[in-house]
Structure prediction request, 170 residues.
Amino acid sequence: MVILAGAVDAFYPSADAQHPDLQAEQDFFDYLLRESADDFDVFDLHLYGDLDAITANIDAVRQKMAALGYQKPIFCGEYNGPSFFNFMENLPILQNIFTKMMETPQGETLAQATQRDAIAELYEQREMLPPQAQMFMQGCSLELEQKRHRINCREIVTRCVLEVRQVFLR
Prediction:
């Protein structure tokens, strides 16, 4: 049994998606679906993004396969939540990190250093950041850590129920 790749919410991103490589990822998986139909048995979809996009992502993969004249089972091999990226309050922070990285000449070591500096800067400004950002930082308050864990428990159950409903009961 061959399981193809691990697409991460690339087919139906939420309206507020800020993924800088989204089009390249969509093009890559479109190519795989088009050119590799005979080379895999199951398609792996990772559901880390917006809860409201889970159903649409699974449906979009099915529609792409149908448009290419085939259907294969969809396996959701990974999912989790919440993610730093799922909170609107964190998008400007993320945009700031991406901007700094894009201003830096490309080179793996330099890009890594830029990312490390941007994250270090976030820790220096921790007290001014929204709680939605602080809860993902090491050393956050016990209250925020517990809140993140409660949200995580709810999201894992919700993602599992949505996956089962879309993949197995359809």
About this structure: DSSP finds six helices and three strands in the chain. The chain has a mean pLDDT of 83. The longest helix spans residues 142-168.
